[in-house]
């Protein structure tokens, strides 16, 4: 099985994610995959929700908080500025309150609540995932490549999503019951039509957004999730743990990509420092172990590059390393 | 004569409203249509919700008019009809509306506080606790007094089947509006029709024979279980008392919209039809002579009768029509939190009170125009000082049947309508009271005795107390005690209002003197009744069961009197403080 | 009195009478239903705006979205939560 084949055989998997510990090359793979797809005429958006995003670095262009920026034909990149998003969102809420009640200013009590809510740590995650929903739901692209925040965050969000979902169904039920009593009162006092319950509508929308964002991560049909790892003991253990956690949350794994493999040719050349030789030997051991563990799910082995990946030409080289000459 | 009595009452009532009430409202209390009421200010959709004046007038009237204005006057006719009518007219004019109106205004001007909070604020911290325990016994007396009346009514063979069908129609009404979401008019027409047909079915011979069979299931040949100095305790009354409380129990523990509310709703329409029909009957009878409308009971019989001296006992026997403490509860907890304008308080509270007085005079008319039935059986025993020889319910049934027959309703059906009419009026209040007692015992005792947090326990304990009273006490005495507690509660409300007015630097004499009168009268009545009960309990030939009932009655009476005196003492101190403040401040008017 | 005035008077009497009947017949039930609804509303505010009590239940991001709709109720909600409850309230 090759990486390209996964794409070929699953044309519906349009949400692509690379996961793994920080610094293993997720952003690089995201960019290279986007490049590979774009070259074949697919409209691709690669976006990052990581506050320490590095898409700007890799494309050598400042795109932070600027929306979807065209890098080359069909290839767009976006770095989400969560803080900015939260600020805009707060302003929307304020404006809505002012409009709804014709206030001149937000009552102090309400303002302090808005401030306090925005200072919550959970705020940023929800804001990010909410924006992901916006991006994905807009449906302007053929592929969405998702440069994921470190795994822990995603899993936390996933675990909370089901809790939120339950909460919202409870609250929705409460609202519906309230509605029932309101109708009861209306029938008894023979009042005509009631106003629609806006809160109920909002709740349904919130629920939709939460389930959409979590389903993006968990939909087997639409999502391809690749684990990035390097042949090292600690990383291997972490990956195994993460993979079992992912299974628990129903995140479908499409396969593993091994990065930073020291090329055999390099060692064969001779005249190399013992340090490198030792590392190579060690990698051999772990590569074998990786094959034993994951077998045909290992989709690619990418060799260690001689320098940092930045700029389209390096990205092209990386795409070559990942997909070879294969096409969709 | 009956008609003219009613007419004169109406004229006096209109004059009172037009002049006295208006003057107080505008010049002393100075109701201000622009002042924000608690309902407007705190509209929280739960405790505070504004409603229009005409809606609240209906709400207030429905909440205050129950058994009081009917049974009280009928019992009080034993002193003659004139004292009863005079007390109703004078009472409502100088005291009744004053309490209802002023307590609503007081609550409104105090952020919608209820009686407990107001007592705490204006009298003393302990006043609230005393008031609440007072309230519990007061409500227990309502349960006992009303329960006894209902048990007597249900024992009549024409009543129970119709009552049962009406209850089922009520449950159906709940199902139709709340579950099947049907139109209210449609629901009303269907269920009220079912109830009416059911009441008619209940008068059929087969239905009566079922009830008679039940009534004959125990006791001796006449169905008597044991005899008391006040008459025999019949198995039927004993049994139907339980049924009445089972009904009340459902009303207390089932979701309110499942049982209490829809049953009361159907009952309401039925009661309305009954009132309209009877008034029509009185008017037609007056001008056609279809039935006797001249008073057969003397205007004045004697100062003393078996209940006690005219003063103070008559003044507590007629409770709701002239003045009633219950109304201050409705005014403060219910109405004051819904009035959207201060100026609505006058028509809503005083208006409803005056209307109720007219209803009470109608009850006097029903009672005083017949002392014996057409078949010769006696209602008031003329040879024996016009002593009531059937239950007050019996008088009402007969009176209503008589006047309904004028509009073409057969006697049996008219009687059934009268009986069910009274029963549902009493049960509406009893359900509310039991619900409250349940909440009260959960609040007061729930922390110490966990079991009381369970709604069934609180309800069952209150029911057990009620049954004890029903089975062992003399209902007329319980009625007098209930009236005493009720009027005394009115006295407390007047005391509170007086202190409030004094604190505000307003004229308070128009509340103070009625309050003093009520206080002195009711404490005297309670003490006399307590003393009568104790002496009955310790009389040498008293049966054990009867001793219990009289002891309970005596103790409750004594407790209420003592609680009232403590409150009066604390109240007097607060009033003096307020007055000295008032004297110190530069006079405003 | 003109025809017009007469008609409006009759209209007014009709309205007041039907209000009165409604007040007797079903105002209490209406009020009960609204009361139940109202206390549920307060429960709702408690669980969505629970942050005010330091209980984050809904993600704050989303509770902000609901905030505009409950603005008018927040002060009455707080007042009702803080108001000293009296037993007699149960009678109303």
Which key terms come to mind for this protein?
heterotrimer; B: 589 residues; mainly alpha; Hydantoin permease; two-stranded antiparallel sheet; 21 helices; globular; C: 92 residues; 74% helix
Largest sheet of chain B: 2 strands, antiparallel
Choose one word for the global shape of chain A.
Answer: elongated
Biggest beta sheet attributes of chain A: 8 strands, mixed
Enumerate how many helices of chain B there are, as a single number.
21
Low-confidence stretches of chain B: none
Give the number of helices of chain A. 12
Helix and strand pattern of chain B: HHHHHHHHHHEEHHEEHHHEEHHHHHH
Strand order of the largest sheet of chain A: 3-4-2-5-1-6-7-8
For the termini of chain A, the CA-CA separation is: 14 Å
Give the neighbour order of strands across the main sheet of chain B: 1-2
Order of helices and strands of chain A: HEHEHEEHHHEHHEHEHHEH
Mean pLDDT of chain A: 85
What does this 3D model show about the protein?
- The complex is a heterotrimer of chains A (328), B (589) and C (92).
- Chain A is an alpha/beta fold.
- Chain A has a single domain, classed as 3-Layer(aba) Sandwich (Rossmann fold).
- Helices cover 57% and strands 14% of the residues of chain A.
- Chain A has twelve helices and eight strands.
- An eight-stranded mixed β-sheet of chain A has the order 3-4-2-5-1-6-7-8, sandwiched between helices.
- In chain A, strand 6, helix 9 and strand 7 form a beta-alpha-beta unit.
- The radius of gyration of chain A is 24 Å and the shape is elongated.
- Chain B has one domain: Hydantoin permease, CATH 1.10.4160.
- By secondary structure, chain B is an all-alpha fold.
- In chain B, strand 5 and strand 6 form a beta hairpin.
- Helix content of chain B is 73%, strand content 3%.
- Chain B contains 21 helices and six strands.
- Chain B has a two-stranded antiparallel ribbon. In chain B, strands 3-4 form a two-stranded antiparallel ribbon.
- With 92 residues, chain C is mainly α.
- Chain C is 74% helix and 0% strand.
- The longest helix of chain C has 23 residues.
- Chain C has three helices and no strands.
- Chain C has one domain.
- Chains in contact: A-B, A-C, B-C.
- Chains B and C meet through helix 3, helix 6, helix 12, helix 14 and helix 17 of B and helix 1, helix 2 and helix 3 of C.
